[in-house]
Amino acid sequence: MQHGHEVGADDIDAAARQVAHALLVVCELLVTSAKAALEALVEHPEDSGVCEIAQKLEMSKSTVYRFLQSLKARGYVVQDAEDRYRVCAASMN
């Protein structure tokens, strides 16, 4: 805050708009990345481990793992005993 300048409602509204825009951008990036992970499973079901998907998408393994775990928790993918992932048939309906 500068000397002699009080924060008004217009300043707060502008800041809120900037924060909302930043959140929308972050959400769009997350959705796009999760969608890319799901598409990689559909397009290459034989290469369905975290490492293979991360390499294809040029993402970190930890990021891909978190996306896959989130998709798994929502019933979009299943994980086998060898830690391979595949799209759940029920999610395609």
Characterise the protein shown here.
The protein has one domain: Winged helix-like DNA-binding domain superfamily/Winged helix DNA-binding domain (Arc Repressor Mutant, subunit A). Helices cover 60% and strands 6% of the residues. The protein contains three helices and two strands, in the order αααββ. Strands 1-2 form a two-stranded antiparallel ribbon. α1 packs across α2 (50-57) and α1 (9-43) crosses α3.
How many individual domains?
Answer: 1
Helical segment count: 3
Oligomeric assembly: single chain
**CATH arch. level architecture:** Orthogonal Bundle
CATH superfamily: Winged helix-like DNA-binding domain superfamily/Winged helix DNA-binding domain
CATH topology: Arc Repressor Mutant, subunit A
Which range does the strand content fall in?
A: 5-15%
The percent of residues in helical segments reads 55-70%
Q: Which secondary-structure class do the elements indicate?
A: mainly alpha
For this entry, give a set of tags.
single chain, 93 residues, mainly alpha, Arc Repressor Mutant, subunit A, two-stranded antiparallel sheet, 3 helices, 2 strands, 6% strand
Q: Outline of this structure?
A:
By secondary structure, the chain is mainly alpha-helical.
What's the helix and strand layout?
Layout: H1 9-43, H2 50-57, H3 61-73, E1 77-79, E2 85-87
Antiparallel strand pairs: 1-2
Helix pairs in contact: 1-2, 1-3, 2-3
